[in-house]
Amino acid sequence: QNIKLNDLSDIAETSCRNANTLLHEKRFNIVDLDPFGSPAPYLDAASRSAVNLLEVTATDTAPLCGAHLNSGIRKYAAVALNNEYHSEMGLRILLGSVARHLARHEKGMEVLLSHATRHYVRAYVGIKSGAKNADRTLKELGYVTHCDNCSYREWKKGYSVFMEQTCPECGTEMKSGGLLWLGKLHDRIFCSKVIEEIEKRPLGKKKKACKIIQTCLDELDIPFFYDQHRLCKQLSVAAPRIEKTIQDLRDKGYAASRTHFSGMSFKTDAPLNVIKSILSNMY
Ligand SMILES: C[S@@+](CC[C@H](N)C(=O)[O-])C[C@H]1O[C@@H](n2cnc3c(N)ncnc32)[C@H](O)[C@@H]1O
Ligand SMILES: [Zn+2]
Question: Which ligand is nearest the CA of 37, by number?
């Protein structure tokens, strides 16, 4: 019925079969994996089948975001840190897993759009076939260490990397997470095109959808956002407006942006001590 409504009879078909059997048998230009719960049991078949575009939804945010650590290790072969940026952690763990599944089939990926909204994570990745592209993609995976005491974090790309365990800011022992995707989360051109297409259509949630994608488009491509509330609590100062913090960081010559992950958070390339001195008006 939907195929007819959208006039897609020549390029789309329906089939009532187990997704794993169908996807292992047949190649599709676009595979949109939207199961109930975890996409993990279908990632291998979907990665084999997808030729141009793979889209994945995950609603199992507890294993992805570190709330159910062992389940995350079982499903995604990764350790997720359940800290203030757990939503971004979940998205990057899913993307890391997608990258590794594609690599088994000698495919690389380019993340076109990805987001963590409400209780799910969603990713759209363009596929680049060939072992070289797969190798290039795997170079974007790595680990993160995080200090729960002062919010200092460090990340490093690579499969076997040495990570400092002691926080250089406060001396606390840090936690390590990974393996996860440390590459880009959005492609600006793709995001603009999606917004253009949404604008043209009579869709119910068009305003909301455009807002999410526009925030993704404007978001800095730097791993792991800062939660302003948490930093201000650590500093015992009142939280300023997020726009002010972003402007202050830019005025000091750093890149800074809002993030779609949370309204009270921001992304920046400024070091933690600079961020903290700006928030306490001591810069
Ligand atoms: C979250 S719904 C998909 C919703 C759909 N994407 C939409 O936007 O309307 C999940 C669907 O996956 C189907 N499903 C669950 N396990 C499956 C499997 N192993 N093979 C094929 N389909 C499956 C369910 O029957 C259900 O229709
Ligand atoms: Zn610390």
Answer: 1
* Atom 12 (ligand 1) nearest CA: 35
- Residue 161 in contact with residue 142, Cβ under 8 Å? yes
Distance from residue 36's CA to the centre of ligand 1 (Å): 7
The CB of 36 under 6 Å from ligand 1? The reply is yes
Ligand 1, atom 10, lies closest to the CA of: 35
pLDDT (tens digit per residue) in 130-182: 999 999 999 999 999 999 999 999 999 999 999 999 999 999 999 999 999 99
226-227 and 175-181 strand pairing:
unpaired
Averaged pLDDT score across all residues of the chain: 96
CA of 58 to the centre of ligand 1 (A): 12
Tell me which of 153, 185, 217 is where a domain ends: 185
Per-residue pLDDT, averaged over 52-58, amounts to: 98
What would the two tokens of residue 244 be?
A: 């002010």
Q: Can you tell me the distance from the alpha carbon of 24 to that of 18, in angstroms, rounded to the nearest whole number? A: 10
Q: Closest residue (by CA) to atom 5 of ligand 1?
A: 34
Of 34, 49, 121, best ligand 1 pocket probe by most atoms within 8 Å of the beta carbon? 34
For the Cβ of 240 lying below 6 angstroms from any atom of ligand 1, the answer is no
Task: Specify the pLDDT at position 283.
Answer: 63
pLDDT in tens, 264-275: 999 999 999 999
**Domain CATH number, residue 255:** 3.30.56.70
- Is 200 a domain residue? no
Q: Which domain holds residue 254?
A: 225-283
